[in-house]
Design a protein that fits this description.
The complex is a heterodimer of chains A (116) and B (114). Chain A has no helices and 12 strands. By secondary structure, chain A is mostly beta strands. Chain B is mostly beta strands. Chain B has no helices and 11 strands. The chains are: A mainly beta (116), B mainly beta (114). At the A-B interface, strand 5, strand 6, strand 10 and strand 11 of A face strand 4, strand 5, strand 9 and strand 10 of B.
Chain lengths: 116, 114
Amino acid sequence: AQKITQTQPGMFVQEKEAVTLDCTYDTSDQSYGLFWYKQPSSGEMIFLIYQGSYDEQNATEGRYSLNFQKARKSANLVISASQLGDSAMYFCAMREGPTGNTPLVFGKGTRLSVIA
Amino acid sequence: DTGVSQDPRHKITKRGQNVTFRCDPISEHNRLYWYRQTLGQGPEFLTYFQNEAQLEKSRLLSDRFSAERPKGSFSTLEIQRTEQGDSAMYLCASSLWGQGNEQYFGPGTRLTVT
């Protein structure tokens, strides 16, 4: 069974609009972490945002916020005020276990295209 | 503060040849990870190190693959007797154990096996 599921292969959004990228996860651990990374066409993975399973508040980093719904096992990324430079692949990832720095499991990604 | 670097950025090789990739992590980072990414997929974990110790290897890491981090600094990933199925982007990441959660990725090495 897939541990990270991203059901949207591609998404389009108008510049300056908000967009939500979906991510659901599967784990039996009580302690885990969820990540979103951006991968532009250059190939480098850029860390965007992190949510710990025990964090009560949804994580926010600038224009990025993570809509964490633990009971539904979802960790959707919300990008507000989209910019042309946001066009890229976006990956949701998870690390399991109580300690940080363990290997990540990634979803298949969502390609976001921002339209002027 | 320089980021994670990888060399080479691109490698084209013929089937059956051996290739070696290098990763230089962020200088104070003690954890180093190798991932492989094929077209249309997310990265998949291959192996990781804490300092010079290899802590875990994925079942994806066949006997033809070997990774080292001899002095706990840079790491090499060698693929022997390459096959066309080895064509992929090989990503290296590093992190500092006990400090935050994020892994910092390098630009990757794109391998094409002809």
